[in-house]
Hints:
Chain A is 41% helix and 32% strand. Chain A contains 4 helices and 4 strands. Chain A has a 4-stranded antiparallel sheet. Chain B is 30% helix and 30% strand. Chain B has helices at 12-24, 51-67, 108-118, 121-124, 156-165, 167-172; strands at residues 2-9, 28-31, 42-48, 72-78, 82-85, 94-100, 130-140, 147-153, 191-195. In chain B, a hairpin with a 6-residue loop joins strand 7 (130-140) and strand 8. Chain B is globular. The two termini of chain B are 13 Å apart.
Amino acid sequence: xxxxxxxxxxxxxxxxxxxxxxxxxxxxxxxxxxxxxxxxxxxxxxxxxxxxxxxxxxxxxxxxxxxxxxxxxxxxxxxxxxxxxxxxxxxxxxxxxxxxxxxxxxxxxxxxxx
Amino acid sequence: xxxxxxxxxxxxxxxxxxxxxxxxxxxxxxxxxxxxxxxxxxxxxxxxxxxxxxxxxxxxxxxxxxxxxxxxxxxxxxxxxxxxxxxxxxxxxxxxxxxxxxxxxxxxxxxxxxxxxxxxxxxxxxxxxxxxxxxxxxxxxxxxxxxxxxxxxxxxxxxxxxxxxxxxxxxxxxxxxxxxxxxxxxxxxxxxxxxxxxxxxxx
Lengths: 114, 203
């Protein structure tokens, strides 16, 4: 199974903290994620301006190859205390967040009935 | 009815006697298969009519495990919980037991949501033939295990293939186990054990 799996971090920054959060994410999270086999797909800042009083939303999308690639990154991050420490360090900069795992619609059938 | 799972780690030389002793106490007993994670060397599963019967039997079980010089025993006592069997009487399949400890801060409603999502796994992953999810009555070993999630598969391929690869597992359920997900509630230290008992244990 070699479908592209998307790992999406959907993060609502604390008001006025989005740039700081994205910088922290880029420097403290992304390099290790790439070492775990995750490939950065895109970073979206919404709205496309930096807000001071309100929250920006950061949608950061990664890809891995197939469920094997997904488990590969998960098995490494789960037992790496640095990952949990990163999210704890970032918490004051975050109002709320979610993480989603998905695929292109064209791959749904193969992934769920493959 | 109450059930007891013991995942015993013991030197190879002691395992045959341990297996025989636990079988003599009416346990389903088998070597833990390769690929387990913290699953022990010998898996034993017992069923008792009630908790009183369990209390009466436990000293002999403990004595057998002690006689083997066991290095560790992760165990859990649990009731019937939620269960179903789509292949009743499956005798030549593979049993898998997961001992988990949902010890992260959580509300009762979130725990109920976790349990409700867990028991949907067999709907989406039909390779799970028979299954049970139950909160523990008591437990011991590495952690105070809070739940037992056990399944029977027709063969090891059902566990290694469809169970692990289906998106309901990794894209839905696993977020409860994943420190990177805000829904994380389950301690990352688990007992993932599987064995071929040669007898049906979930139906």
